[in-house]
Design brief:
Blueprint lengths: L3 E4 L8 H8 L5 H22 L11 E7 L4 E6 L6 H25 L21 E9 L8 E5 L4 E6 L6 E8 L9 H12 L5 E4 L2 E2 L16 H11 L8 E7 L5 E7 L14 E4 L2 E4 L14 E5 L16 H24 L1 H6 L1 H14 L1 H7 L4 E3 L5 E3 H8 L10 E6 L6 H9 L4 E3 L5 H11 L3 E5 L5 H4 L12 H11 L7 E5 L8 E4 L2 H12 L11 E5 L3 H7 L3 H15 L5 H15 L1
Helix pairs in contact: 2-4, 8-9, 8-12, 14-16, 16-17, 17-18
């Protein structure tokens, strides 16, 4: 064939600086695009063979990536479908460049560059992000086809000529520009290939080594897989993580295409430090691990992969576009997770309870952030008490009906955040045959608020938020043995010891503590929610000093020992709440020793 030269008709002097500057936020993506194109070429040949439209030998279909540091070239080779001279003109010059023209027009009209939809066929031209010259040497699979060379220096001019190539397929040769020579590095190229091509469906070879797994488990039917396959794949994704609790295999083809595997990891209380993320693929090409629009917020601590060709991306494939499919996928994932959790709960409740420490964080986060999820989750939300017994919401409401209902008909669920710090209060509740829940997750303050809004006549109160007789107010009036003068005297003795806080004299059983410190449920929840939200608590620490007016020791405060005894009792109450430190703690210890002499 004769050499042919030409110019692409585009209304701009040079489209490539625009592509290089605005189209791709990360220049390493050129390798993803070109390798993906090469894989597509092998997949198309395989498809033609299966349809009987290619009867030759397929051989081992693969893509090879190589580089030459001296010649400053990177080459992406495949033995796929190849192109004739006419196809080069059509696909490289006409379709891709017309896509480029459309891109420029839309680019000039829009102010939000991230919203330009990726349907311009510009993948090949990402080569010019790193190359000053690009050549293609290709030979079509068609019988009698001749090899063709295409060349461009990044301007709108091109050259097509005859070439030497014995076998079908395509070589894309990049002559690397000076400002991109960092890519002429074995470690960097292997790192990029591993990142974007780890699960491409055709073998990717680099330095005579296969760097990908072409058949990851998410492209297989669940019936083909065993537990050990899912666990082995998890280790492939996250080599240093503990085994997951369980997993969900996603597989849907209508109204959108989506496959994947989501794993529930073991989550600790410091779950915010977790750095493993769900990985998004499109036809086995890695796109991003920022899946906030696809996966509901409360499930973004899951691990695993999602693969969908129907997720719209902007032209650089770097940002997701919000559209109907994304919303439907989000809803589908929420539904599948809800169904899986319900199935686990029904099939083996004991095993579900054993996993609740981790599962509970997802469920609570879901209830806080997604009203619809609550409807799916209400049957398997669990509450655990200090005896390590588990209850669903309905079961627990029934349990409370016998002894923990206030005068207004509200079931009052007592809870603690810290078994050790609140032990004295828990003991007091258990003496009255009350039940106490353990709610020590970081999300529990928000979780309790959500439940109180959704479950009628159920209230949660921390076991040390008020005297128990007030927490569960049954309308029974108890009397204090102190006279009015004695009450006044008690208040006068204690008030100077607690600053702006409140002295609260209560008629409590004689075997309750003489003095205790309580903080209202509102104040505790406000403080806890501020911590979770990463906000500083702007309100000063306020508490009530509850004086048991029926305790014999309080009679002594009224009489001979007065202020010294009161100080000791206040310090004891502060100490029990972890609020006594420094010189105040030292002085308390010295006073206590003196009293023992």
């Amino acid at each position: 064939m004769t050499t042919e030269k030409g110019t692409i008709s585009i209304n701009t002097e040079n489209i490539f600086p625009i592509i290089k500057k605005f189209l791709y936020s990360d220049h390493e993506i050129f390798l993803r695009e070109l390798v993906s194109n090469a894989v597509d070429a092998t997949q198309k040949l395989q498809k033609l063979s299966s349809l009987g439209q290619f009867n030759g030998e397929l051989g081992e279909l693969k893509v090879k990536v190589s580089f030459d540091k001296d010649k400053k070239t990177i080459t992406i080779s495949d033995n796929g479908i190849g192109m004739t001279a006419e196809e080069v003109k059509k696909y490289i010059n006409q379709i891709a460049f017309s896509g480029a023209k459309e891109f420029v027009e839309k680019y000039q009209q829009t102010t939000d560059k991230s919203t330009i939809i990726g349907q311009f066929g510009l993948g090949f031209y990402s080569a010019f992000m790193v190359a000053k010259e690009v050549e293609i040497i290709t030979k079509s699979f068609q019988e009698g086809a001749e090899a063709v060379r295409w060349f461009s220096d990044g301007s709108t001019e091109f050259e097509i000529s005859a070439a030497e190539r014995a076998e079908r397929g395509t070589d894309v040769i990049l002559h690397i520009a000076e400002d991109s020579e960092e890519f002429l590095d074995e470690f960097k190229l292997e790192q990029i290939l591993s990142k974007y091509g780890k699960f491409l469906p055709t073998t990717i070879e680099f330095k005579e080594k296969t760097i990908n797994n072409p058949n990851p488990i998410w492209v297989k039917a669940p019936s083909e897989l065993k537990d050990e396959d899912y666990l082995a794949f998890y280790k492939e994704l996250y080599p240093y993580s503990e085994d997951p609790l369980f997993w969900i295999h996603l597989n849907v083809d209508y109204p959108f295409n989506l496959t994947g595997v989501l794993y529930f990891p073991k989550i600790k209380q410091d779950f915010q430090l977790n750095r493993e993320k769900i990985q998004l693929f499109s036809k086995q090409v890695f796109i991003t691990d920022d899946v906030k629009d696809i996966v509901p917020e409360f499930l973004q601590l899951l691990h695993g992969v999602i693969d969908s060709p129907d997720i719209p991306l902007n032209v650089s494939r770097s940002y997701l576009q919000a559209d109907g499919n994304v919303k439907r996928i989000n809803t589908y994932i929420t539904k599948k997770v809800g169904e899986k959790l319900a199935e686990l709960f029904r099939d083996n409740r004991k095993a579900f309870e054993e996993k609740w420490e981790s599962i509970g964080l997802f469920v609570k986060y879901g209830i806080i952030s997604d009203d619809k999820f609550y409807e799916r989750a209400k049957e398997f939300i669990l509450l655990k008490n200090t005896k390590n017994e588990y209850f669903t919401i309905d079961e627990y409401k029934t349990k409370l009906e016998s002894n923990q209902v206030d005068k207004d008909g509200n079931a009052i669920a007592l809870y603690c955040n810290d078994l050790n710090k609140e032990d004295a209060y828990i003991e007091g509740a258990l003496k009255r045959e009350y039940d106490v829940l353990i709610l020590d997750d970081v999300l529990d303050a928000h979780f309790l608020n959500a439940l109180e809004m959704k479950v009628e006549k159920l209230r949660f109160k921390r076991v040390d938020s008020e005297p128990l007789e007030k927490i569960i107010d049954k309308g029974i009036k108890a009397e204090v043995v102190l006279s009015e003068d004695e009450k006044k005297k008690v208040e006068e003795v204690f008030k100077p010891l607690i600053g702006n806080n409140i002295v609260q004299i209560e008629a409590l059983p004689v075997d309750d503590l003489p003095v205790s410190i309580v903080q209202t449920e509102f104040m505790r929840r406000y403080t806890d929610m501020s911590k979770v939200n990463g906000q500083a608590n702007m309100m000063p620490l306020m508490y009530n000093l509850v004086v048991n007016g029926n305790h014999p020791i309080i009679q002594k405060v009224v009489t001979e020992e007065g202020a010294d005894l009161a100080k000791q009792l206040v310090d004891l109450a502060l100490l029990s709440q972890g609020m006594l430190s420094g010189k105040d703690l030292t002085q308390f210890i010295h006073r206590s020793i003196e009293r023992l002499k």
